[in-house]
Design a protein that fits this description.
This protein has 209 residues and is α/β, with parallel strands linked by helices. Helix content is 28%, strand content 23%.
Length: 209
């Protein structure tokens, strides 16, 4: 790779949550398209163009490993998963290949597709953060043209350490992004996905079809 080539991007899939509000065990193991959410989304990151994928497990990690085929990916455990998403976020970034950008996404977003991943990778500019954007209406109801920042989220290699250090509690990059809005490019992905999370039982329909 010469100096003018863009840095490769490692996908980081955060799959450590217990799914407490759903009450169905770790979200990673929810059935989706004949497999599990964690398997489908890890493959999505790879198929979309990430150079490799890091899968961060937490709640029920042993069960997830035993019930899935994740041999193509680097699977790491976050023993501090119960402290909030930030610890899994930092674990994933630390495990990603040194000198690479990272694309962070969440295991409870089944709508993310390889096309979303590819669009963000193509749009990313060195030294910046690139985020998928979805209409506010998809989250709050109604009609709007305003985009809300969501996942996946590409963090440039030059920002990795600072973003990871800023993560606390149940937030990943949120504090950094709020402090540095001028570094963030929000890319409209509303024609490809809706950015919805499967975090409550009324959202389980997102796993069908």
């Amino acid at each position: 790779m010469n100096d003018s080539s863009p840095a490769p991007t490692v996908g980081v899939l955060l799959a450590g949550g217990a799914g407490t509000r759903l009450g169905l065990g770790p979200k990673a193991l929810l059935p989706f398209r004949g497999r599990t959410l964690v398997e489908v989304l890890a493959k999505t990151l790879l198929d979309g163009g990430c150079s490799k994928v890091v899968v961060v497990l937490g709640a029920g990690a042993e069960d997830v490993r035993g019930a899935t085929e994740l041999d193509k990916y680097l699977v790491v455990d976050n023993p501090e998963w119960a402290t909030g998403m930030a610890s899994s976020f930092r674990t994933g970034i630390a495990a990603a290949t040194h000198g690479h950008n990272v694309m962070v996404t969440l295991v409870d977003q089944p709508g993310v597709t390889p096309a979303v991943v590819a669009r963000l990778l193509a749009a990313h500019q060195a030294g910046r953060v690139t985020a998928a954007g979805y209409p506010e209406a998809a989250f709050d109801g109604g009609h709007t043209t305003k985009l809300r920042r969501g996942h996946p989220l590409i963090i440039d290699v030059t920002l990795r350490a600072e973003v990871a250090e800023s993560a606390v509690g149940d937030a990943g990059a949120r504090r950094f992004l709020k402090a540095h809005p001028g570094l963030v490019d929000v890319i409209d992905c509303s024609d490809l996905a809706d950015g919805a999370d499967v975090d409550t039982k009324d959202k389980l329909h997102l796993l069908s079809g």
